[in-house]
Amino acid sequence: MPPSSPSATLGEALLVSGTDLFALGHYPGAPIYPGVLLLDQLLVLAERLATRTAGHPMRVRTMARVQYLDAILPGDVVNLEATVRTSGPDGLSLAATASVRGKPCARANFACGAPCAAIEHPAVAPSQAPPVLTHRQVAALLPHRYPFLLVDAVQSYTAGAQICACKLATRQSPLFAAQAPAVYPAGLAIESLGQAGIALFFLGQAGGAPREVVLGAMTGIELIHDVPFDSVLTLDARIDRLLPNAVVFGGEVRIGPTPVIRVGSLVAMIDPRHAPT
């Protein structure tokens, strides 16, 4: 790998409109640009920079930390920037930021390496057992709506502890209206895992209908394999900690028995009206 300057930087602008599809489901009447869509934008930017720097294809393999600092709202023009911090024979480390009017909204640390091997025979049949919660019942638990409700069913759960859910990774989502990417976006798979965890949280809470939930931070993320389209994702999430205004989850996304993404911790900030009691 050729040496690179730590100042190597790549940037672009992201325009966020209230007529974008995300606004239908995140959240109706009070849209907030989803943190995982922002993450996917930063991942693509970082991989472009890493590939240009290395001179051959590079992919983000781990994310030490992703932190969300402020909400991105319709009308915002977001400045995205990725910078190479170090490079060596094992890969590159990069920092990425998103800001609006000079104010940071998110920052992340990525490690890039060679692309990982593809999963063979990814189309694993879903469980033959009926789900314990259908898609309609999941929708009653979560504030997310079409097209950003990204859990299809719940196979099993233990209230306050663990949940196993599923998501079918297809190309039919209107989120891919412009053009479907080569593989299912990692950010959307992470969002599915997070939504499964949030459903688990609300299954253990008494009270009214849920309101807004936003990402606060994520740590210890491993992107083990690309997520191929037309595969069944198993979402295995656990609650690690309850905070006064947040829930901390961990877990993994699998295809069959094979882990494709591991998340060390994901912090979901809960509307104060539905904070842990």
Furnish the topology, listing elements before pairings.
Elements: E1 9-15, H1 22-25, H2 35-54, E2 59-68, E3 77-88, E4 91-100, E5 103-113, H3 135-141, E6 153-158, E7 162-169, H4 186-203, E8 213-223, E9 231-243, E10 246-255, E11 258-270
Helix pairs in contact: 2-4
| Alpha plus pi helix count | 4
Along the chain, the helix and strand elements come as EHHEEEEHEEHEEEE
Broad structural category: alpha+beta
CATH architecture term of the largest domain: Roll
Whole-angstrom Rg:
18 Å
The major pleated sheet works out as:
11 strands, antiparallel
Overall strand count? 11
Alpha-carbon distance between the two ends: 52 Å
Q: What average pLDDT do the residues reach? A: 89
Q: Percent helix among the residues? A: 10-25%
Task: Spell out the CATH superfamily of the largest domain.
Answer: Hotdog Thioesterase
Low-confidence stretches: 1-6
Task: Tell me, briefly, the overall form.
Answer: globular
Domains, number: 2
Strand order of the largest sheet: 1-3-4-5-2-8-11-10-9-7-6
Strand content: 35-45%
CATH topology of the largest domain: Thiol Ester Dehydrase, Chain A
* CATH class call of the largest domain: Alpha Beta
Summarize this entry quickly.
This protein is an alpha+beta fold. The protein has four helices and eleven strands; from the N terminus they run βααββββαββαββββ.
Describe what this molecule looks like in 3D.
- By secondary structure, this protein is an alpha+beta fold.
- The protein has two domains: 9-113, Hotdog Thioesterase (Thiol Ester Dehydrase, Chain A, Roll); 135-274, Roll (Thiol Ester Dehydrase, Chain A), CATH 3.10.129.
- The protein has four helices and eleven strands, in the order E-H-H-E-E-E-E-H-E-E-H-E-E-E-E.
- The chain has an eleven-stranded antiparallel beta sheet with strand order 1-3-4-5-2-8-11-10-9-7-6, covered by helices on one side.
- Helix 2 packs antiparallel against helix 4.
- The model is unreliable at 1-6 (pLDDT under 50).
